[in-house]
Design goal:
Two copies of one chain form a homodimer. The first copy, chain A, is an alpha/beta fold. Chain A has helices spanning about 20-30, 35-55, 60-75, 80-90, 100-110, 120-130, 155-165, 180-185, 220-225; strands at about 5-10, 15, 95, 115-120, 140-145, 170-175, 190-195, 210. Helix content of chain A is about 45%, strand content about 15%. In chain A, the strands form two sheets. In chain A, strands 5-4-1-6-7-8 form a six-stranded parallel sheet, sandwiched between helices. In chain A, strands 2-3 form a two-stranded antiparallel ribbon. Chains A and B meet through α2, α3 and α8 of A and α2, α3 and α8 of B. Chains A, B: Catalyzes the hydrolytic dehalogenation of small (S)-2-haloalkanoic acids to yield the corresponding (R)-2-hydroxyalkanoic acids. Chains A, B: Pfam families: Hydrolase.
């Protein structure tokens, strides 16, 4: 981690736990929460990739909604409008991972600008960050809405360079999503992959600059190179 | 199905069963064949989408190989070079679905040109088709290699219009992959989705023109509109 002038975080799955919706899924469909959340997330991602490739961009909330509709149909579960609204609303109130607030506080104290670059719309990002009370840590909340294509299209990562007025190699990008970390590495960011679940990094022709088990390990990593 | 002047087929999962590699997977890793084949196929598709979005195209065989490496690492299975070669080679010798040869014969007799448009390289497509002895049914075997991006990027579907010298609406495109059928529909093809496993069509903003349960239903569908 040399030359780092700003830290840019992915939001979904990195700072905030997308599977914190399991509880609401379980309330709506008792005993099925984990299964619903897993397929919902998988399809949500697929729809962002496929929509981008087709040149048929839609806001992230729409992809989230469409993925929920698919999930319930595929699992043969009835989905009425009220349940759909409740579950999609849960994506606006995700919980940060437990170690995140303290890690952000330490990183902020080190004097580096912190930003978020997310597939979410500006409204979604703002909602999630404010709901968790973490808004004061970030200088920039950046949405793919500006370029109307999803990660890992390089146009998305470019928006962070433009907003922060930095070269790609001056940005340390943090993501738990291996495909996002790979896209950011190909783009030219320094990349730290957060591997909380002991997963295998994807075989996409590039490796992250660093791997950590949680955000609590990030201040030491950044400090060691400072 | 009006105005149809040619029928263009997807290959992997539509004419040929990608899970016919289960047997070879099971021989290499007893009892794990189904699990390996499912994750391998999922990752193979993801890598084609992600590589396309990143602007990091590789031939389909490389994506197939990379997905196998990921799969074995994630499932904590040792993968030596010989096993990797054997399993990847199985993708060059896929079995057609049982009803496919007779359906192609009937369609050919109806006088419409038949073609394949596939994510595979020209070598892979040719290998699979010749291994099954079905090469004489097709006037064109079209690979994404020409445009160096994978489906569902519209540039792929364009190659079929160019090769067949037809407008998009004059082509009937056949795929079992809902995301491929959706991409082809957005592009402007007439599309028939082959739903052998009673799956749910993806929520990607478009519906196929027709749905059939197997290729044996296709001659009647085409004939009825002729």
């Amino acid at each position: 981690m040399t030359d780092t002038k700003a830290i840019v975080f992915d939001l979904y799955g990195t700072l905030y736990d997308v599977h914190s919706v399991v509880q609401q899924c379980d309330a709506a469909y008792p005993g099925r929460g984990i299964e619903i959340s897993a397929l919902w997330r998988q399809k949500q991602l697929e729809y962002t990739w496929l929509r981008s490739l087709m040149g048929q961009y839609i806001p992230f909330e729409q992809a989230t909604h469409d993925a929920l509709v698919y999930t319930c149909r595929q699992l043969r579960l009835d989905l009425d409008a009220a349940t759909s609204a409740t579950l999609c609303d849960a994506y606006l109130k995700l919980s940060p991972y437990p170690e995140v607030p303290a890690a952000l506080q330490q990183l902020k104290a080190m004097g580096l600008p912190l930003a978020i670059l997310s597939n979410g719309s500006a409204f979604s990002i703002d909602s999630v960050v404010r709901h968790s009370g973490l808004q004061d840590y970030f200088s920039h909340l950046l949405s793919v809405d500006r370029v109307k294509v999803f990660k890992p299209d390089p146009r998305v990562y470019t928006t962070a360079c433009q907003a922060l007025e930095l070269a790609a190699h001056e940005i340390l990008f943090i993501s738990s999503n291996a495909w996002d970390a790979a896209g950011a590495s190909h783009f030219g960011f320094q990349v730290c992959w957060v591997n909380r679940q002991h997963n295998t990094f994807d075989e996409l022709g590039v490796k992250p600059s660093a791997v950590i088990g949680g955000l609590d390990e990030l201040p030491a990593l950044v400090g060691a190179a400072g």
